[in-house]
Amino acid sequence: MSVALVTGANKGIGLETVKQLAEQGITVLLGSRDLARGEAAAAPLKAAGLDVRAVKIDVDNAGDREAIAAYIEKEFGKLDILINNAGVLLDGMGLSNRTSTTSQEMLSQTFQTNVLAPIALTQALLPLLRKSSAGRIVNLSSILGSLTLHATKGSPIYDAKTFAYDTSKAALNSFTIHLAHELSGTSIKVNSAHPGWVKTDMGTDAAPMEIPDGAKTSVWLATLPEDGPSGGFFHMQDTLPW
């Protein structure tokens, strides 16, 4: 039996990722800051016969991180898939570059949730991932974390400068590269995923992609075969520049 944990999964891309993984016969822990909301989100999936279990995990809460590690250890003895899906966009979408006035508070809050929390959770769960025969770690990044595209005039994101969010995703990408390097030679693969611009609360209705497509990159990376990539940055199955 394969076991997956998806954070920030009571709605949007996270919830769809849970559904698609569970449809492959994987036992999926649906992580949510609010357990009641998580249970409400899990209910129709469970009713459809999928092995989905709601768990409380506020990624910013050290106690929650410790508790989820203890729960997984007790219930399953291992973890096969970790998808660091939870994240925040506090800058707000837009084309106006406000880097010079981005507050320290916004930077701190953004980096706490988008960078420090997934690093801490991954470190807490790594002993359980090492017990898997094919551990997979997926960090939900964004094309907005690509330094190359941000620096390239005419790129799709050249004028989309949301400083706190963009730099947090660039830092998360760096974590992917560093951890994948450390774990090279093991059975664990670590990759960053750009889901695309998706119709979610964060992406808004202006986004061109539907939620089912937004989950595809994460699901692909979570179920990579032994000869699959590690230490990469992908959208669908295309490599993105760092």
TrEMBL record:
Which keywords annotate this record? NADP, Oxidoreductase
Q: Which Pfam families match?
A: adh_short
Which one of the record's GO molecular function terms can you name? oxidoreductase activity, acting on the CH-OH group of donors, NAD or NADP as acceptor
Keyword NADP part of the UniProt annotation: yes
- Where are the coiled-coil regions? none
Q: Which residues form the signal peptide?
A: none
Question: What does the sequence similarity comment in the record state about its family?
Answer: Belongs to the short-chain dehydrogenases/reductases (SDR) family.
UniProt name for this protein: Short-chain dehydrogenase
Q: Which organism is it from?
A: Granulicella pectinivorans
Lineage of the organism = Bacteria, Pseudomonadati, Acidobacteriota, Terriglobia, Terriglobales
